[in-house]
Fold these 2 entries.
Entry 1:
Amino acid sequence: MRISTKQSRELELLSKAYEKSGRNIATLLDKNIASLIITGNKVLGLNNVTGVEVLPRQISHGVEADINIQPNIVLNRPIHICTGFLEKRGMQKIVFNIRIGDNSSVKFVAHCTFPWVEEFTHEALSNVWIGKNAKMSYMDEHHHSESGSINLKTTTKAFVSKGGYYFNSFVLTKTRVGVLNFNAEVELDDDAVAEMVTKIKASHNDRVMVREKIDLIGSHSRGIAKSVIVALDEAQARVVNEAYGRGDYSKGHIKCEEITKGKHVQVSTVPVLKVFNDLSELTHEASIGRVNAKQLETLMSKGLTEEEATNLIVKGLVS
Amino acid sequence: MLCLEKVSLRRQDKYILKDIDMCFEPGKRYVVLGTNGAGKSSLAYTIMGLTDYRPTEGHIVLDGTDITDFSVFQRASLGITLLWQEPARFQGLTVRQYLSLGGKISVEEKELKEVLSVVGLSPNLYLNRMVDELLSGGERKRIELASVLLLKPKYAIVDEPDSGIDIMSLNMIQDVIQLIQDRGGTPIVITHREEIALSAEEGFLLCNGSIWKKGKASELIEYYKERCDRCEHANAPVTEEGENE
């Protein structure tokens, strides 16, 4: 990976931000690992390995990248993506067009770090296409500043071909959220499987909107969408989980857990299940409110105060 | 000494527990017997002070201090703990975190491994596993036994320790209860299993929320086997005179 002198200063800053979120940027610089490093609208680093083609280009306020995995490629080490914004104010747009070839298997580890922003909008769009019998995992973790003034809009549109597997996780639990509008939808062909997990801890006056949609188009397709939201203080959260059963013997499950702590929190969950085929089966489960009493009293019966027990349960939920 | 003095627990017009008088002397081992629905678990929850199980009448006294209004945490701080019949699951918490209560109690790695070995779980396989739905009922119960061992309680209410655990592991359960006692604790064991009950010195037989008999564990077991096992009016007890209580 080549980095110019001018860019190396930015890398140094990004490295600090990365370390702040508990990571080591050296991982991204390993030439044996496919990686993409973005700050603002610049590509700071890029490394491709056999079978992986990452083609980034600058766009207005950001970067768009085509990420192509050739067929029959099995990557033993994940592709690392680091997206940073090191200024205090501004906007960033990120577009990823990810295409996984048939029978390939790949994992992405993505980190978005905006540690010093005060007024900032981040828009991310991921278009994902997963080939036949291919597997893809995308684990996205965010670290924001504690200003609570980030406006984050993230949209993922995925299609999983016959026999393919898609796992997507979005985690924002270690810092303030700001305003989040999270959208993820996946369409599944025959025998395709998808799992989507969202974990968010909102505090102060954070605002969270989560929408996850699973469209079970193909026969024997299966999908699960799971959201865990912890809302503290005056935070507001709204979760809409949708599942559509169209394919024969398709199965979908949606689950939402919203834990509240604070007199002024506002949370809601709306499950939407629609069946268009009498051979399809959809289920949902939801819990909303304070920490589970049995869990709480179990820990209190071992000597934790209510506060300590609540914190430990929440820590586990969002870990 | 831990005593319940005329403790009753009433929900609307129904008594879940009624006029319970019982004392547990430090260092002894007790058994609580009774058919399903007799009030055994309600008694355990009442002693622990769980929500909805606060006595509507009577007092709970520990070493002369009235703890009736104490919270679960306060009672635990005084050395009372509960081994749950069906322990809760915790998403995202490892066995290590659970046993050390998120780091609140400092436990050496060696001790963690020892207690897991005592309850028949391999430390290498379990310390970093989650205490979640992926554990079987038996595995979860063993972790709960390990947790109680680590706490070294003065009074351990052990609610059906054998439920969910294979019959071959009865010796392990006996060992855990013995260890609690060896470490200065007073096990109060709720059980249906004769082998476990027999190892207690004294006990109480509950029926319909009241103490029906108290005394030596061995005598209570004989009475239970003879009268309660096939009782046609379980929890609607009949007095010696043939009248319903």
Entry 2:
Amino acid sequence: MAVTKEFSSPIAPTWCPGCGNFQMFEALKRAILEMGWKTEDFAMFWGIGQHGNGSDFWQVQGFHALHGRSLPPATAFRLTRPDQHVIVEMGDGDGYGLGMGHFIHTVRRNVDITCIAHNNQIYGLTTGQASPTSDHLMKSPSTPKGVLEEPVNPIGLALAERATFVARGWAGDIAHLSNLYVQALSHKGFALVDVFQPCVTFNKVNTFRWFNERIYKLEEEGWDPSDRVKAFELSMSTFHDLECTPETCRIPVGVYYKEEGRPTYEDGLSATQTPAFKQAQTPRDVSAIMRGL
Amino acid sequence: MSQSAPYGPEVRIRIGGPAGTGIKAAGQSLARVFASSGYHTFDLTEYPSLIKGGHNTYHLRVSEAPIYSHVMATDVLVALDRQTVRLHLAELTEGAAVIYDPADFEPDASDIDGRDDLCLVPAPLTAIVKDVGGIPIMRNVVSLGAVLGHMDYPLQGLLDSIRAQFANKPAEVAEQNVAAATAGYAFAQDVHCDFPYKLAPRAAEADVVLADGNESVGLGALAAGIGLYCAYPMTPSSALLHFMAKYGDDNGVVVKHTEDEIAAMNMVLGGAFGGARSMCATAGGGFALMVEAFGFGGVSESAVVVGVFTRPGPATGMPTWTEQSDLRFVIHAAQGEFPRVVLAPGDHTESFEAGWKAFNLADQLQTPVVILSDSYLCENRQTSVPYDVDAVTIDRGALVAEGDVASHPEAIAEAGGYLRYKVTESGISTRALPGVTGATQLVNSYEHDEYGWGQEGERADVRIAQNDKRMKKLELARTLVPPPNHFGPTSAEVSIVCFGSTKMPVREAMSWLEAEGITVNMLQPVTVWPFPHEEVAAFIDSAARTLVIESNYTGQLEGLVAEYCGLHFDANLRRYDGRPISPEIVYAKVKAMLGAQVELTTAGAVAAKEGGL
């Protein structure tokens, strides 16, 4: 795998050999290069998890947030820094567990952020417990009899709250993933790219081979990404039997849904038109407000 | 029955009735009438956490002389239901008036408990509203007219205020209200009791601020150039969210009502990363949710301001009442150790000052700054001399907002490259914002190296260097924070230490005691963290008799003094029933320390018992 040097820190990645995070790292660096962004043009936010350890491997304007809390600071940053692009990376345990409330509310806002979920359907950092996206009945150290909950359907949830760009990526295909990222980064509004990214150490079910046998590309099958209801139906592919065959559970990747032209949250605020740090150069005159109370 | 000694020429008015009848709004318009004609006012709104029903009251103190707090006595009671009379009978002064609507109830012997001194004013509020073609909520306006009529105070100010209030509504709405007030006024004039508490009309327009503590903090924050305000509604801080929502966007402030307090605090950190002066505010319960992110602000050296406006806890507690029981919580909140500043403004003017100074401290120290207040200060309005907006300054500390970080050599590594967390003598590192050329960095919730990366942060030497660098800022903070306030003579018979809103009733009581020739002084730490142990110790060491006053059960301030000064007080006064410390009980406590037993009279005033001074 050719490795892009731009945006990389001097710290060598500590992910397990073969981890899907490597491909995601590479695909995103290529996409940012293709966008023509320089380091001073964008900021990146991470939560806590193996994806978040990636914050050490980037040399960018970065913010390594608390577990589950990458979207709120990214939102605030975007609203107060209209001159900056914003990329959020979150994990499935991080973003769809603790961060689920923030995820739903950020989707509702259609704030101009690209949100990339490292979805390995497992907790890697804390050694292999089930995550919110683990398959029903998957066994793990915290669920020895199998996960009794249905997995979170992030695509469906995002569509339910009218996300304007919803895609699923596959870490096993860097070129395809990088192209999805470019589309997401170019989109005006909230863009979700939920990426299947096998955990080679702890997830013995959803492996590279398992995915490769099931993945298909939406654009190759003439998918129309303008139909929200059909996209929602497609998102039901999240739910399948643990023992399903490649024929009975096919995994669609690509852009599920895209809506152009809907106003962003920041379009509705006059305050976001200027970087907010410029508001604190000289004191505001509050005399009239004070006397008008 | 009443005792005039502590009180100057003043009138105390209470409006009471069920929630949802517009009591607070009506009371505040009455306050505006008196404030704009040069009177000093202090109001106290007490209400349960209900939208309809229950018992709400608005108490307004109007005085010719400067005042510092509410008092417990009432001279005019507007009773919009029967229970209002029963609940407040004991605080009615000799000759006090009770304005009520005979359509609601007729006070019977048990309601007034044989008080034949009272002047009953049976104002037909509902009938008058009907006559002028108004809606039931306008009963308030009739009662305001009746209050002024009873006091023989000119009606014109109220009519002007009504017309201003309804300026944007169809003309007949204002005129209906004017007619309602006029009819109420005329009715009370006809009843004409010999009312002993009168205020002479003042002609001059007064230049005053009539603001509550929430608005005062908000004004300070606006003046300081706030760029981001995030909050989730929670009493008693919600009014600050409303203030910011009303004035923010047009003034360039992003104001976000977030999904929860966790989001609010995390958003504020993101705003600070981008260089916005960022603030959130909440009550103790909301702050409990914010705590993890508050600590993140410490390790990431984020310049943020957090308002913690407290009420009685634990958990949901008593949402609409007041308490100072989160002092320890705020100074200790979050796992791990990091420097923080906690400012506890004692009144409305100090709330304004804390509102802007907190941002300078946060930027200078690059660490979270808390404004600790409570319901008593946040929700009640006082007339103040207009806040000194010309004194506001902006100091953003070691901030690089634009340009190239290479022109700031102090922030560059020997091998080149920007170091956000470079170890320095003072503990302060140059903070270059995103967008500045070369300002790559990692704001990190993990311990980190000078760049911000987490991996090296696990090294023992790096951990020590970063932890030492951060903690050094606490010593720097001591040189920057507002010092304690000292009131009264250098030496006194009784020396009081208190913090926050308790300053107000203590100052009021001090003025009563001074009038009797009793010397009292007071030390009020405005900055409660870092704790000003030297000033407090010096004050206590030089005192004859010491008293500590606070609104909590365990004596949290008293404990801090024991812990950091190794000193104990001669006496303490603690209150934890949700009601603010009142000047009457401070007065009585001080007199008791001097050997004069004092008790509250039935009028809520204080009277010397046998053997008094």
